[in-house]
Amino acid sequence: MKLFPVVMAGGSGTRFWPLSRKNRPKQFLPLDGDEPMLAATVNRLPPLARIQDTFVVCGPNHAAAARRILRKLPRENLIVEPCPRNTAPCIGLAALHVTRRDPKGVMIMLPADHHVARPDAMREALAAGAQLAFEGAVATIGIRPDRPETGYGYLKVGARLKALGRGKKAFHPSRVERFVEKPDVVTASRYLAEGGYLWNSGIFLFRADVILEEIRRAMPVLGEQLAVIEKSLGTPSYGRTLARVFPAAPSISIDYGVMEKSQRIAVVPAEFGWSDVGSFAALSEVRELDDLGNVLQGDAIVIDGHDNVVLGNGKRPIAVVGVDGLVVVDAGDAVLVVRKEKAQDVRKAVEELKRRGRGSLL
Amino acid sequence: MKLFPVVMAGGSGTRFWPLSRKNRPKQFLPLDGDEPMLAATVNRLPPLARIQDTFVVCGPNHAAAARRILRKLPRENLIVEPCPRNTAPCIGLAALHVTRRDPKGVMIMLPADHHVARPDAMREALAAGAQLAFEGAVATIGIRPDRPETGYGYLKVGARLKALGRGKKAFHPSRVERFVEKPDVVTASRYLAEGGYLWNSGIFLFRADVILEEIRRAMPVLGEQLAVIEKSLGTPSYGRTLARVFPAAPSISIDYGVMEKSQRIAVVPAEFGWSDVGSFAALSEVRELDDLGNVLQGDAIVIDGHDNVVLGNGKRPIAVVGVDGLVVVDAGDAVLVVRKEKAQDVRKAVEELKRRGRGSLL
Question: Which domains does chain B have, with CATH numbers?
């Protein structure tokens, strides 16, 4: 069994403005530590998988930045999508590249912008998932919830499968009964109380041949488009073909397009300090806190305040006085202040700036 | 009767940091309009008094700035205190300068950092106060309270004096029964409900000879020090004498040192949209508001937020999202975020920066 991690770095978003910009999306920011999240994602895989076998998928305007922060990634392992088409086409394209190395290679699909507190525990879970995948499953990693989180999708656990490993270190995979969209807080609380629900981490494992077969069955149009691209792979016409065919692919997520229809879905429940770091508010989960629960970066001073996220740019002080539960970000050329509970609404500020013709700041 | 406004611009404070600095205190900032508060204070006096008869008192490190913003003020009308000694010595010194022009000249003592919404109404009140002062009273302007403000001192109104003027435009001065320190909110509410209390505006009117006599009686040491300085006035030794004698003067306010002991105190009740602009929070009273009650300056955007004070420096945007009752100030080299109710606590941030050896920012 050979493992091929595929890190999906094509995302763009506005929830981390003003730190994130069009040309520097979230995965290129060191939001949860010292290195950009994309680099951390790639670097936490060895010794489970080798960097030579790791692929990264991103858009054309981020390729140079990705190469810069991933010096050891072989040049041919960077897959550049001509345009964003959500995860189903992205995964299909990656599967073609993996197939050229090993048609039965096990792909580990990883979002580039998630936080993992315990990489060793993550690698153990991925190893278990890879075992299932090698046997033909479309495997996903489900995170055991520890709170009624409304920001994540959930998986309803189905029939038990045979355990992987033994004793305390064993993993207990199951079928997936269904995928559940982000619930409201009452529903999320019920999921937590009832048990049998896991957070959908967006991490998937499958053999290249298996996922291509699943795509052909569930998304025949995409299947045909991939077949066209596959013929050009390794030839001088690849770039041209990709640029012609890929933009026509349906923009659909792998969850919706394939997973939810698949009969081979299995989930490996795990815990490894996972967070999708969905907004500035989530930095309180993944960063070191001071005695009063504040996240401080740069030249930040909090007085009489709890539970704030204050990110300075290191060039001038930010003083926060008598405030709780606030996000304050100084990006040098723009300042953001938002209540933690409203951290998702940062996009509204971005829209307003766009409306005012201030696109250069976005 | 000749009027001599004396604008006291010696204050230094930290409640407007990071806009105010050691070398640019509050009265040099355009907090309530387009011009520095000191300039507005001087410029709202004509035609009641002439700029040639107006004095400004400030410290040596602010003299150049004061001259710069008060181009029309005669050079000899800027009185430079060698060091701050509170208002009693400041007023005594100013009285010496006024005496040289007219011993019975009526001084109008004005803080340099207050807001006045209706200068014409203020001038009418000052004219009434000057009338009382010319007749020998130590007059003060009392502002009719419209809310149970805890940030101001109060005057308890005593026996009625004869009205000044007639009909609707008449002023009804009284004796002052006592001066009251800043009350708690229960006491302030009682004052408002009972009536008979006025806000102490810190604006006083008296003849130069009268206040010097009052000082000699209530503060004999200061009286003697002033006598020494007076002898040197207009001679080459003035600067040297002032530098030697003034720092030895007792650092006491005119309220405490003289007013509260005087038998000649009278108060003129008035309303002219007065505010002492005691903190960033007060800008909501004196600045234009948007539809949601926000004060916006520079490149400020508020989304889903009420009752905020957001002061940009005009060079980069500040986006405030989902927040109410917050003060956000970008001074270019420092950023402040503080809840409006805690706006007085800005000094804590200043102290913390001092403790960290960041004095250059203060």
Answer: 3-275 (3.90.550.10), 280-361 (no CATH)
